[in-house]
Amino acid sequence: xxxxxxxxxxxVRLSSDYVEPPVVRxxxxxxxxxxFALLDLGVEINAIGQAAAPLIGINQTDLICLNVLxxxxxxxxxxxxxxVGLTTGAITTVVDRLERAGxxxxxxxxxxxxxxxxxxxxxxxxxxxxxxxxxxxxLATFAAAQPSGDxxxxxxxxxxxxxxxxxxxxxxxxxxxxxxxxxx
Length: 184
Fold this sequence. Notes:
By secondary structure, the protein is mainly alpha-helical. The protein has 3 domains: 19-56; 58-123, Arc Repressor Mutant, subunit A; 132-184. 62% of the residues lie in helices and 9% in strands. It has helices at residues 22-25, 29-52, 60-72, 77-84, 88-100, 122-129, 133-144, 148-180, and strands spanning 75-76, 104-109, 112-120. The protein is globular and about 55 Å long.
């Protein structure tokens, strides 16, 4: 936060053409720095996905879906679509691509023979996520060097940030759905 003294964050803007909401304009320098750092982090996380996906022959949306399956376990196509904010039609195309590339497989749901689950193949997931081994090593080293109180605070803050992002993504999806619904 050393640079806060040298930069007037009330003048730092999302865009010269965008008038920020009052709560953003009236934020303290530290709050604005946190806001923009979180937005920048999202951009950087997106950039690493954009860089990694072509190395394994898929696109970034496919990589995001593969990550969800790897971390959450087998899901129905509908649950996967909901988790990543895609339509069921779009998720079918993603799953088809991932299956052809050997990253996922469709399996029967042991609890309901009528349902099909999509699961990450262990070989495919290892091939895909080995690209991130260096990043994970660096992140683990970074996290281990932090005081436990700081880590707990950061976890709470990131959890709250993620909740806000999820809530706003759902609101935007709802607005998009309303825009597609024909009005009488």
